[in-house]
Amino acid sequence: MSQIETQDNLSATEGVEVEGDNLKFVPVAESIRYRKRAQSAEKKVEALAEELAEAKTQAAKMSEQLKNVQTEQKLMRKLAAAGALDVEAAVLIARDRIEGEPEADLDGILEQLKKEKQYLFAGGAMSAKKTAGAKERVASSQTILDTAARRAATTGNRADLQKYLRLRRNFI
Predict the structure, then answer these.
(1) b/e map 71-89, b = 16+ CB within 10 Å
(2) The pLDDT of residue 134
(3) Element (H or E) spanning 9, and its range?
(4) Model-wide pTM > 0.85
């Protein structure tokens, strides 16, 4: 019998493994078991590679979110230190400007925001000032009532008396 025929007869009962130049005969069942183990290991490697890729993309997303939160916190601190009256509105406007620039300079954006939107900051040209109609409050309501009573008693004016009576009704 030739070697090929012998090998065909053995292949029905045994698998062939090659180690260097030597042939080593292994039972077919064991060879099949090795092949199945190798295939399952390859499937596990593929599944783990997919999980790793998903974990990397999730880590990248979380890193981007963390960077955005840190930038927003820095911006909020700088705006509060600069005297922003409406910090939330100023943060929204500044964040919109930061998204347009890849390397945003927070101080430059803050200065630009101060120039363009003066109403968002205290001490700006359009900040609220007291008018003649707004009067300073006296520390206690009893003092206001006493002052109005004395004024009504000394002047005898009906308007002063009505003011005293109105205040008395509100405070008592």
Answers:
(1) eeeebbebbeebebeeeee
(2) 59
(3) helix 3-11
(4) no
**Is residue 149 within 8 Å of residue 164, measured between CB atoms?**
yes
Rounding to the nearest 10 degrees, give the CA dihedral for residues 61, 67, 68, 70: 140
Q: How many CA atoms lie within 13 A of 155 on its CB side?
A: 14
Taking CA atoms, 118 is separated from 87, 104, 122, 128, 129, in Å, by 13, 21, 8, 12, 15
CA 8 – CA 43 distance, rounded (Å): 31
Domain borders along the chain are 30-120, 141-171
Return the residue matching tokens 């939330």.
88
State how far the alpha carbon of 1 is from the alpha carbons of 5, 8, 26, in Å: 6, 11, 21
